[in-house]
């Protein structure tokens, strides 16, 4: 009975190799850049999720700010806080 040789398949392009070392070589040579880009994509996705949540938070703060139950002082504090968050957000979006 013929024994089927175990092959090591590249998870990026499907190319098969007889030895894990050859596969590792291939991945390093051909897909390293792609792998990096993939990682960066995830990071960017997480970042924009965070930014969206922050924009939501600013919206909530601004909604609270116009509440009739707050004193002028409290409204001032909320205004400061949302301004600070907006500045941080603008800074992050600029550096992205
Ligand atoms: Zn490959």
Keywords:
about 100 residues; binds zinc ion; single chain; mainly alpha; 2 strands
Write the layout of secondary structure elements.
Layout: E1 8-9, E2 16-17, H1 20-65, H2 72-95
Antiparallel strand pairs: 1-2
Question: Could you say which structural class the secondary elements and strand pairing correspond to?
Answer: mainly alpha
pLDDT averaged over residues: 87
- What ranges have pLDDT less than 50 throughout 5 or more consecutive residues? none
List the secondary-structure elements in sequence, H or E.
EEHH
* SS elements, strand count: 2
Describe the structure.
It is built from two helices and two strands, in the order ββαα. Helix 1 (20-65) runs antiparallel to helix 2. It has a two-stranded antiparallel sheet. With 96 residues, the protein is mainly alpha-helical. It is rod-shaped and about 80 Å long. The mean pLDDT is 87. It has one domain. A hairpin with a 6-residue loop joins strand 1 (8-9) and strand 2. Helix content is 73%, strand content 4%. Bound molecules: zinc ion (ZN).
